[in-house]
């Protein structure tokens, strides 16, 4: 599906992106994410979205070669981090919504959302970091079945 902001004003997920939803408790995420990266990144770039700055920093610290990107990081360091990610110095970026919009990063193969975002628009923007410029990609959304109701996002994102 494509983003169509002219006709019915509803945003839809890209058809160039394979969307996968995986039930996973919060406590099991850090163990599951490396397997998801191995399975779906094809050796390419991965962006992992977290809701909080602390969780982004903690997860980045637990993944070999990953770097965090969020609002508590100084702008100069954010630029160094983005430059390293773009150049392939490291392949996994763990971020908050600071990376959901406005970043032009080529060849992102995989997006992982550690929990469903608060609204459909955030899901579309996050998953839209892959599958760009005619390329394909994968967007994985983790959710805790005891805490999350993902039906609205699935229904409204197409």
From TrEMBL:
PROSITE patterns, per database record: HELICASE_CTER
Keyword ATP-binding: yes
EC top class named in words: hydrolase
Domain of life of the source: Eukaryota
Any GO MF annotation of the entry: ATP binding
Catalytic activity: ATP + H2O = ADP + phosphate + H(+)
Documented EC number(s): 3.6.4.13
Domain Helicase C-terminal: 32-158
Residue stretches in coiled coil: none
SUPFAM superfamilies (UniProt xref): P-loop containing nucleoside triphosphate hydrolases
Key words, A-Z: ATP-binding, Helicase, Hydrolase, Nucleotide-binding
Presence of the UniProt keyword Hydrolase in the record: yes
Pfam families in the record: Helicase_C
Entry-linked Gene3D superfamilies: P-loop containing nucleotide triphosphate hydrolases (3.40.50.300)
Record SMART domains: HELICc
Name this protein carries in UniProt: RNA helicase
Source organism of the structure: Opuntia streptacantha (Prickly pear cactus)
